[in-house]
Known about the structure:
The chain is of the alpha/beta class. It has 2 domains: 3-117 and 327-344, ATPase, nucleotide binding domain (Nucleotidyltransferase, domain 5), CATH 3.30.420.40; 133-317, ATPase, nucleotide binding domain (Nucleotidyltransferase, domain 5, 2-Layer Sandwich), CATH 3.30.420.40. It is built from 13 helices and 10 strands. The chain has helices at 34-38, 45-67, 86-103, 112-127, 167-177, 185-191, 217-228, 233-245, 251-256, 260-287, 304-312, 324-327, 332-344; strands at residues 3-8, 13-20, 24-32, 76-82, 107-111, 135-140, 145-150, 156-161, 293-297, 319-320. It has a 5-stranded mixed sheet, sandwiched between helices. Helix 11 (304-312) links the parallel strand 9 (293-297) and strand 10 (319-320). Helix 4 (112-127) crosses helix 13 (332-344).
Amino acid sequence: xxxxxxxxxxxxxxxxxxxxxxxxxxxxxxxxxxxxxxxxxxxxxxxxxxxxxxxxxxxxxxxxxxxxxxxxxxxxxxxxxxxxxxxxxxxxxxxxxxxxxxxxxxxxxxxxxxxxxxxxxxxxxxxxxxxxxxxxxxxxxxxxxxxxxxxxxxxxxxxxxxxxxxxxxxxxxxxxxxxxxxxxxxxxxxxxxxxxxxxxxxxxxxxxxxxxxxxxxxxxxxxxxxxxxxxxxxxxxxxxxxxxxxxxxxxxxxxxxxxxxxxxxxxxxxxxxxxxxxxxxxxxxxxxxxxxxxxxxxxxxxxxxxxxxxxxxxxxxxxxxxxxxxxxxxxxxxxxxxxxxxxxxxxxxxxxxxxxxxxxx
Length: 361
């Protein structure tokens, strides 16, 4: 029996979790910084670091308290070492080093992207339907849009990545442009069903070189040009005024200040992003021999339009999504990704560095 404490602090959530024997989640605590960053329209790195400093000790203590375990009951401590915001990563990794030094338990450095993959692997094992390998892993979030080949022994091969904006980043930027605030992805997803996804035709990026690479910058610019061609000043001002009084408006409140043409724009934008993601995933499955399953993870894996599209359109192989709680940043995925390293004795030194641009493959 092994127990690992996981710590995640790569962006704007401070999280800690304890996992026993790879699949038993004993605790999971997440402190969000949404209210801090929302008024700035995005994550402010300096503020994120300060909030992590405030939250790290109570969050870890709560995660351990829930389990009723002591430090001596742990077999290892794992922390995200990258990729992410440098200052934010340093807070979680440094605290994990302190725990390792004080208790003598080994330290494990985890790649954040690998954590998202292991969130799916953990929940699939819990359901008794383990992920079949080799698998195609599509990681989609505010900071990442990557396609990997994932092997059973833990090896990864990068197949494609975004050349500019990540998909989640494009959602947030379009939402901010239209006055929906930050984070914008969930708002777009909630309002898209009220629009016609075929109302506006956005063209997909034509990629030279690696056809499995993504690009969302052109789509974001196309939305900007559409907005510039229509008189939306009053409605955007109305939505910003709504946000001044309420950071989390209801769907009904958003609909009251959002004309049908804008709902069609949101639906068409989301539909284009989803089509682009699925088109690349299907193309990759066709190119890879013997791929047996598709993993979709990361914050955008919460998107209902993406989940619905995957359900309705056959990829030819089983598709695995994480639950919403494990789609966004959390420490369960970090502890889960640490177990294979723990079994191999792949431990980090106490001088291990935070690596903001750490690559998985």
